[in-house]
Amino acid sequence: MENKTSSNRAPKAGGDQPLPAKPKDKPAKKEGSTAKQEKAQKKAAAKAARAAGGKDNKPKGKDTTSATALAESKKLPLVAHLEERIYPPTTAGAPPGVHPLVRSVGLQFAEFKICGSNARCIAMLQAFKQVIEDYQTPPYTTLCRHLPTYLSPQINYLVSMRPLAVAMGNAVRFLKLNISFLGIDIPESDAKQKLIEGIDEFIRERIIVADRVIVQYGLQKIQDGDVVLTYSCSSVVKAVLLAAHQKNIRFRVIVLDSRPLLEGRKLLQDLVDAGIQCTYSYLNSASYVMKQVTKVFLGTHAVLSNGALFSRAGTALVAMTAYDRNIPVIVCTETYKFTERVQLDSFVWNEVGNPHALIQGPGEGPVIANEKAPLEQWESSPNLRLLSLLYDVTPTDYLTMAITEVGMLPFTSVPVVLREYRI
Amino acid sequence: MFNLLGDIDNQGLDFTQYTQNVKPGIIQEVQDFIEELEDVYTNISSQAMDHIHSNEIIMTTGLSKTVELFLKLAAKKRKFKVIVAESAPSFSGHETAKALAAAGIDTTVIADSAVFAMMARVNKVIVGTSAVLANGGLISSNGIQAMAEAAKHHSIPVVVCAGLFKLSPIFPFDEDSLNICVAPDPVLPFGDGSLVPHVEVINPYYDYVAPEYINLFITNHGGHPPTYLYRLLNENYDPEDTYLLKE
After folding, report:
1. Residues A161 and A304 in one domain
2. What's in the GO CC field (chain B) (predicted)?
3. Which CATH number goes with the domain that contains B236?
4. Nearest chain A Cα to B113, which residue?
5. Which of A125, B101, B159, B201 could form a disulfide with A383 if both were Cys (CB 3.0 to 4.6 A apart)?
6. Is residue A384 part of a domain?
7. Which residues of B, range 111-150, sit inside 8 Å of A by Cβ?
8. What digits encode the pLDDT tens for the residues B69-81?
9. Contacts of A4 (CB under 8 A, 6+ apart)
10. Pairing state of beta strands A329-332 and A295-298?
11. Residue range B140-180, pLDDT digits in tens
């Protein structure tokens, strides 16, 4: 687990007392909301200024010295309701009770070091295992009554670092349900043991074994001579492709990718390491490369109950391009990513990424590395905004089939699975 | 220009003989053509008021001077918003965005991946092109086909601003032959040594946009649907010209 190794990076355990803010470097323009939020921002800025010298892992351009919230005028009214984050992320705003491991995991979420629903969900659950292990029921109360109130600031903290994935929400719901099932009179060590076993079982059954089953189904859908297109980086699609290669099926993979996250490169690296013949291009070339494609395999962030996908921004474009050319779009997903929620557009619920990332290349410096980098001064231009949406909604019409651990389904069956399996 | 030689009354002319009246004719035609080219931007942008209303959201991508001037002129009288897709890996959208913002237009830059999501709130897609083909299709900058498809999904009109000189008699029997793939370095930097030798990296420069995704061409001679282009083609090219091209 990545989180184990880097837990030492989390600053001071629980001791970040709300000392009077001493901002060395104020946020440029503050969002004029509650006083509490302002205070948190000041604290964050001060903390970042203090920590700036020691942080070498974030090539975030020249603004690394101050954690700044985006100015009000730079927010697009369309997505003004979505939560805004502070860049670069810090753990400074954490309330005192947050477990150090949760802090560390939260920071890694915010920095996109742990990325992807499955990885994030597993990291969170592993952290919660530790939290439960370290938890002591205070006197005059019981574990099943008190533990949820102890866990919720941890969860809230994670949400403040980066909104929980739908799958993570489902996992949290499962954990809370498990806690509520514990009797009042069960000894504390037994209760903890039971919860930790429950979490392990969830990870094993809903993610790891589920992925193995999906791989078996997915293998049936890849034949000799196939050209498989995939977008961004899905852990389960990667598992399917690697398994197909291991089974000596001769196929080719086209990895499409998009900025600013460039997650596809991670997938590309793993596929190339395994010896799969790969083609790589940006999303803009979708219509150019789609002519040679025989199947599209996609992963997802969540499956909405109307059968639409809520997935990495750009997935809708890929699915649409394939659908228009009569190429089957196959989505690999565990059922714990299914949600009751329905969403008709991509704005009601979404996540706004770091706008600065749009003008930064994958390494250091701007995307256009010469003196005329056009948007370098975007923050001082009054009419210019940058928006980086992280997700989009793919209409169900474009999707041919879902491969889940309960079988291969049409997307019209999503509400049925939700109902029958009580996820 | 294209009818240059055809315009001259060649009844009873002996082509083996030196003729005096051809030269001024050619010069005049070339002059006319130069003037037409010089006026292309003004003639196209002068139609902006007919197409852009107040408070609308327009999406564009890539770098097109025609589109830029079109929007700038509209911005003189009307207030509207523009969403610019950045058009990776050339990032030409960034330059467009900068120019539009400098002209006082409310501009938002998005990643290419957000095109489908944002399309739901867009009123019109206005793009430029490198060439207009005989069937009304486009050879334009990479990513426009996907944008046009997304627009079609949302039933949003796609408007192409192009001077008539971009009209070509070529018919896209093989659309890939009209495209070129440029250096892959901006997509996967050669510096990423371990990956580069094992991966085929594709960086197409153009995109073929099928005519069914286009609603309107705004040319220096007015607005035309793609279905009308064959007529304009006949006016601008002699059938012999297209025949010559095949030789």
Report:
1. no
2. cytosol; eukaryotic translation initiation factor 2B complex
3. 3.40.50.10470
4. A314
5. B101
6. no
7. 111-118, 120-121, 142-143, 145-146, 149-150
8. 999 999 999 999 9
9. none
10. parallel
11. 999 999 999 999 999 999 999 999 999 988 888 888 888 89
